[in-house]
Amino acid sequence: MLLLVCVFALPFAWMISTSLKTLPETMRFPPDWIPDRPVWSNYADAWNSGPFPKYFLNSLIVSSGILVLQFLTIIPAAYAFARFRFPGRGLLFGLVMATLMIPPQLIFLPVYLMLSDWKLLNTHFALILPFASSAFGIFLLRQSFLQTAGELIEAARLDNAPEWKIMIRIMAPLARPVLATFALFSFISHWNDYFWPLVMTTNESARTLPIGIAKIRETEGTATWNVLMAANVMLAVPVLLAFFAAQRHIIRAFVYSGIK
Fold first, then answer.
1. Bridge partners of 219?
2. For burial by CB atoms within 10 Å, which of 47, 55, 121, 166 has the most?
3. What does the pLDDT look like over 126-170, one tens digit per residue?
């Protein structure tokens, strides 16, 4: 386990070390893990190399907006597929699962043309609406809902509880570990997404952090690796915070489920 942790932590340690070096120190061979004198100004240089507050806000709006819309769609869809019997349920669920085999790069052109017709390019909507639902999230949550005892739902229905209240008050809290895990995957995926913001935006009004970091790779013809790594550290910090927050909720939810 310790060896596995070292393998995954090594790139992060190298990124932080490089972000605190001068440019000549990044070119040394063999490389030094500890800089001679930490250069904290690299972070200021990275932050001031472009409209990074705007990039950061855009990334936060896009990632959070996608996650909210996904919760609003995957919870009712998963509940319907898990607890209702209706004609074509298997076929519809199969079609949902089939979308997992289609990469976004394959459909970006028709989506781009559609958003262009709607005058939504260079807006947050162009980055949020195509990901308003998730087939993976529906599948994951449906499997969790299927494991819930049917007697619990029947008891709620005998008490004349409406279906939406059963879904929100009973099913969703019991699936909290799954929701937290999916939220973590979704946030990380869209926070780090480079391709979609690149093709859907052409100005700084809606561009996100990965695009901004890519723009500072070359400065005056020289790769400023120290500044670039400082920018990547700033990109990684919200992801790490989201991971630790989701980890705490997952552990708490599993402990609660075990007690019940």
1. 222
2. 55
3. 999 999 999 999 998 998 888 887 788 888 888 888 888 888 888
